[in-house]
């Protein structure tokens, strides 16, 4: 692909997929959570929800099992986002919270599903 060429829809979706994987890596890792803080964990996922709800993450870039994993994580995210006080407690306080633990474990589960196919190229369309 030329540097000034407009990327195809599939290539954009492959890049989105890779950012979602990066998010799950962040949300599943307590050390990364400590570095970025709970507000980032909550707010960053919210950026992807419009795409998720509008089913704009089609196959073959996103498999049916990956959609299911994102939806399961989204439920855990909503629980954490809706029940955590505002302002949010420190990440140290949240680690002991069963709801936050569910968020972290749901992110790890989603990451495991995405790891089956892994990241897709960002410079050319993958044959999926």
* Percent range for β-strand residues: under 5%
Structural classification: mainly alpha
Count of the domains: 1
Number of helices: 6
C-alpha geometry? elongated
Q: Report the biggest beta sheet as strand number plus sense, adding barrel if it closes.
A: none
Radius of gyration: 16 Å
> What order do the helices and strands follow?
HHHHHH
Explain the layout of strands and helices.
Blueprint: H1 9-28, H2 30-36, H3 38-53, H4 64-83, H5 91-95, H6 98-115
Helix pairs in contact: 1-2, 1-3, 1-6, 3-4, 4-6
Give an account of the 3D structure.
With 128 residues, the chain is mainly α. The chain has one domain. The protein is built from six helices and no strands. It has helices at residues 9-28, 30-36, 38-53, 64-83, 91-95, 98-115. Helix 1 crosses helix 2. The longest helix is centred in the first third of the chain and has 20 residues, at 9-28. The protein is elongated and about 45 Å long. The model has no long low-confidence stretch (mean pLDDT 91).
Throw out a few tags for this protein.
6 helices, single chain, mainly alpha, 128 residues, 67% helix
Task: Give a summary of the structure in a few sentences.
The chain has 128 residues and is mainly α. The chain has six helices and no strands.
